[in-house]
Amino acid sequence: MKSMKSLCFVSSALLSSALFSPPLLAAERIVSAGAGISELIIALNGSKQLVATDSTSRLPQGLTLPNVGYHRQLASEGILALQPTVLVGSDEMGPDHTLQQLQQAGVRIDKLSSRADVATLQQNIQHLGTLLDQPVAAKQLSQQVEQQVTALHQQAGQLKQRPRLLYLMIHPGRPAMVAGGNTPASTLIELAGGMNPAAELSNYQLLNLESLLAMKPDALLVSTRSLQQDPQLLQHAFAHIKDHPQLQNLPVYPVPGQALIGGMNLSTVNAATRLQQVLVKAETTAETH
Amino acid sequence: MRLGTGAALALLISPLLAMAMLSLTTGALPLTLGDTWSALRGLGDPTHQLVIWQIRLPRSLMAIAVGALLALTGAILQGLFRNPLADPGIIGVSGGAALGAGLAIVLLPQLAIPWFTLGSTTLLAFVGGLLTTLLVYRLGHTAYGTSMAMMLLAGVAVGAIAFSVLGLLNYVADDEQLRDLSLWQMGSLAGASWPRVTLSLLATLLLWGWSQHQARALNALLLGESEARHLGVAVEQLKRRAILACALGVGIAVAAAGMIGFVGLMVPHLIRMITGPDYRRLLPLSALGGALLLLLADLLARSLVPPAEIPVGLITALLGAPFFLWLLKQRQEARG
Amino acid sequence: MKPLSIVNLQVQLGRRPLFDDLSLELESGALTVLLGPNGCGKSTLLRTICHDIPYQGEIRLFDQPRQHWHAHALARRMVVLPQSSMLGFDFRAREVVELGRYPWSCSRDENLGRIQSSMQSLDVWSLRDAPYQQLSGGEKQRVHFARVLAQLDPDQPGLLLLDEPTSALDPGHQHQTLQLAQAQARAGHSVLIVLHDLNLASRYADRLLLMQEGKIVADGAPASTLTARNLHQLYGVGPELWLHPTHGRPVVI
Predict the structure, then answer these.
(1) What is the ipTM for the molecules in this complex?
(2) Is pTM beyond 0.90 here?
(3) d(CA A196, CA C84)
């Protein structure tokens, strides 16, 4: 009985403190659980307010922070020990049980959408700008993204044909997966002025050589890291690819992995810009031949 | 060397209490013994109280309950199958529970049952474990009663089917689901909440109470089924109830904490080496030993890489697999 | 009172009817040996009596139908010594004997007393703390004999069923086991043993039952049942029969 009573006491005390304490904007201590979100926070001069990030986040050189683990498997006590005021992450972070416990302890939970489109990215920039009390930086960043996207659209108009591009996720020893329509990879392809023939699929789906042929890609995209690890990875992922000269001579372009995890982020836009340059150059070279 | 019951109890209870204390005072958030004590009494810093009452206490209690459940079911099943190397997975519970959890994670990610606060993964894992056990039991049923040899084979086959369907789910799962699935299979006590704790503690007490009551009959069963029947044991009834009790026990443990291997195999075996195979001593000591082992493993799980955690099933497997090999080696040498 | 009476017993093994209207009565204080070639049904008869096999007909134990007995009460009157027990767990010899106390609920001291006296009468009390698995074949057999004695009610006539108790033993231990069984018969219990060895049967049996294809073809004292004609009918060979110079029982060569 005693334990139940004190239990009720704890939760009611916490509830009231969470309800009635005014938000302290300047002194936020932030745990960021999401690669794109950590990237935005750093871009918005918020690295001083960051106290920890999750295992998918990449930090700039010289900045080291505690790692709270995988963003879907967060542990409440580890986070509480860092005394954060707010946990920011994508709508995929969890488990709910941990989020509830953190909320009970007075930590605010800030879930941002992980939809892979430019509008969502702009919303997230605005939101984090307010949270970090960096309205000027947020406006600058927002404009910069706007300009980059506009430039991408203009350049895309100059391409004579929208190239058919497939993003393949290839891990050694496992079958290749192709990025479907609702992935950041697909957004990246569209932004760069290409089209994703696998856009009808959702998430990442398994792909065999026959389906690959059927989608008639003009070029393939793979992650920079896997291409560095194994320059022959297509030959390894698809047996008998050498029997199909049109596939064997297909251009393969690397895309940084950072641009593709945790929803649409700044790296996605940057990667789109670089990819577009490659596409334009490829078209020009093809014409001169 | 063999120890008496009293000595063995003392040997387990005192470290269990010490380990429980350590488990309450250790964690990412540094708390002194004094802080812990006031938080336990509902005094002091509200964050401390929350950490103790909502995180560490339910988690320690769940480690105790789940560890005891796994060790008890291991001890009972080893006797039932007259095989000291049997483990709770032998009756198909683990495969079925994993399949149930897989279905919940991959095919029904949006399924939320309003009144059921433990979540669809927990529910389907439990149902899956129970259904496969019933199937294995039906397959082992013959005109002359339940054939344990047939159940053993059926358990292997049904387990293989469950894991291949799980493989199929792995194949269609997206990256996030795949990650959730593999984390679930590694087992973790991080989801400890009071409803889960209450359920698993209750299951532990019921299973222990029932099996303790049947300890002499379980002893007699070690002689063989016919011999036990000649001693006046209602063998068929005992087997049926024991399998059902174990399926419920493992089902609840797996649903509450995911797959945690080797506790059910390792603990009863160690206890037998210390105090012999008599169930009257084996059952309570196994329960204590299982609780102690899982508390220790969980303490390691949450304090090795703060502020992140390692799944506790990974730790028991890392401790358990080498132990299993050592055990096999020992048996081999003992036989010459 | 008859320890065992079987009336019109019928048992099916698969589709094959094994016994057809078999009837049999056993007396207290006698050692009865069941003989017969492989597959004649002698072990099945024993297993039917101790309820391992479903049957039709009537089996009465101590004048009560089999199905009227409470399992514990019956276990205190009828005990079964197995051929060999595969005990894969590391019990002490004393703990194995203690398993025989399962159908009894009495004080700790009484249990210990019965365990001690039955182990002493089998001459295994000195082995009480030895691990069962390290005992020799003969010692294991005696420990199990002590276990079934500890199970048996000492104050009432009981029924002991032994299924080929000598098959895994050397000649010395074979005689020892049968002497122990004989002693139990002399103490007033009824003993029924399935054996293969004709000379052991001849030497120790008060009554011999010869069985062929599920039928009892000869029943009586060894001298009247172990005849050249019966043995030829049962085993298809014609052995030589002599009479033993000291006890006068038939010897088969």
Answers:
(1) 0.90
(2) no
(3) 73
